[in-house]
Amino acid sequence: MQRFKILMIIIILSVMIYPAPYRVYLLGSQYSRKYNGIGHDSYGNIYIGAGDTWGYNGAALFKYDVNLDSLIIVGNVKQASVAAKNWLNGDTPGKIHTNIYEGPDGNIWFGTHSASEGVDYSGFRGGHIYRFDPSLSVLTDESAPDVAIPNQGLLAIAPAFSCSTIYSVGYPDGDIWKYDLKTRKSSFLMKSNTRLGGISRNFFTDNKGKMYYPMNICFICFDPTDSTRTVKGRGMSGVTQISSILFTPDKDTAYFINHGTYHLWRYIPSIDSVKDLGVANIDNDTFSIGNLAARWDLQCLYYAPSKSGTIIEYNLKASTKKNFMTIPSVTLTGSDGTDRDGNLWFSSYGQYDDRVYKFYHNIPCSTCGTKNEISNNSNNQIVPKLRVLPNPAIDHISVILNNLGGTFNDIRIYNSLGICVLTLSNNTNMSINIPVLKFTPGVYYLTVHNNKLSLNSRFVVFR
Predict the structure, then answer these.
(1) Segment 31-58 mean pLDDT
(2) Are 123 and 152 in contact (CB under 8 A)?
(3) Burial class (CB in 10 A: 0-12, 13-18, 19+), 187
(4) Which residues of 332-370 are buried (b: 16+ CB within 10 A; e: fewer)?
(5) Dihedral class, residue 21 (left if φ above 0, else alpha if ψ from -120 to 50, else beta)
(6) What is the mean pLDDT of the chain?
(7) 368: Cβ–Cβ under 8 A, 6 or more apart, which residues?
(8) Residue 183 exposed, middle or buried by CB count within 10 Å (0-12, 13-18, 19+)
């Protein structure tokens, strides 16, 4: 028994002193069904969608809380639909299968899918579209008093906010519907001519509001201005489904990985230019890939082939790929999950798997989530922000202060025992470099004080 206690102490200390290059967050057994369901907003906040395996309690939207270093439930779809009197017989949303998108007003949008994996969805009422307002912390059922697609789950959505429209594709029949943000009504648009496993896991819109759905090695493009349908993207050999996708910040260029052959592609809608960037896997392996993240400041894409035990980095400028990080041998899912520090977020895929992963990037990002957050008050006052980069750190940290109002009284750093190890006083510089090479590896807490407020953050030193 004594040896066992000593061994456990050694293991705990080793984890504290030599932190892993990733962090695992557990959502709980009630929310253990995930596919896609990841997104971020302009501030670099991460959102995760997860479902109840059986659908009885509804799916939930989680948001990462930086101060608590935890994923917090910000909305349950059942509670939102009950409040809208739109939770009826046949409502069993077992997962959030769609990507999570931010609208131009900062609201967060997503859709729900059924808990069932079967063929017959006649007993399922249909998927709903939901909107989360971060300023009020309120989740709303925008489909009320109806559903987005009758008797089908929402496999993917493609917002066209400039046209006040959200397109959605349903499972198991592959029907494409359009939701009008002004009237809050859904209507049938067209059939995708695919069913069940043949339905694309993602589709998209361009910055003019046109919708693109992959179909028979090309895109069917719907133009809402005149309701015409044209063929785009000819020559995409092997592309019948998109497994993961993201856009450049200006939404001019899409990068995606197709299901089946798992090639990485670039598509520029404005000039209808498609380019095959090659097999996504290293050494042409055939591992499936259902995830994709980006660091636009580095011009790099990141994805993790299923159970390969690695994250691959694709350099867009050099057109090269390499093994970026060794990770657990798991299947990861989710597109466009990059936080304000440049770290990469994915969910583990599975019916009974409640894990979400944050993979620390070794290069801090100065452009990720740089939009100033606005507090919920009548004067729309700008909220002060504190950022510590890089995190984890090796030899130094940069403390970046925004909207603090000129000066601060002091910065203090405490170790995990609550002992103050460093104090800096009376400074007008809003970006301070602090050497931490002499710090013992572990967890540290940083506080900033001025005459009006106190800001807090947490960082890790490792070597």
Answers:
(1) 82
(2) no
(3) exposed
(4) bbbbbbbbbbbbbbbbbbeeebbbbbbbbbeebbeebbe
(5) alpha
(6) 84
(7) 44, 295, 297, 338, 339, 340, 341, 342
(8) exposed
Per-residue pLDDT tens over the stretch 389-413? 887 788 888 888 766 555 667 888 8
User: According to the CATH classification, is domain 385-461 in 2.60.120.200?
Assistant: no
Q: What are phi and psi of 346, to 5 degrees?
A: -140, 155
AA identity, residue 32: S
Domain ranges of the chain: 21-359, 385-461
Radius of gyration of the chain (CA): 23
Q: Helix or strand or coil: residue 271?
A: helix
Can you tell me the distance from the alpha carbon of 344 to that of 318, in angstroms, rounded to the nearest whole number? Answer: 21
What tens digit of pLDDT does each residue of 51-67 get?
A: 876 666 778 999 998 77
CATH of 21-359, one of 2.130.10.10, 3.40.50.880, 3.30.360.10, 2.60.40.10: 2.130.10.10
Segment 88-108 mean pLDDT: 89
Collapsing DSSP states into helix, strand and coil, what is residue 182?
Answer: coil
- How many CB atoms sit inside 10 A of residue 151's CB? 19
449, 443 in Cβ contact below 8 A?
A: no
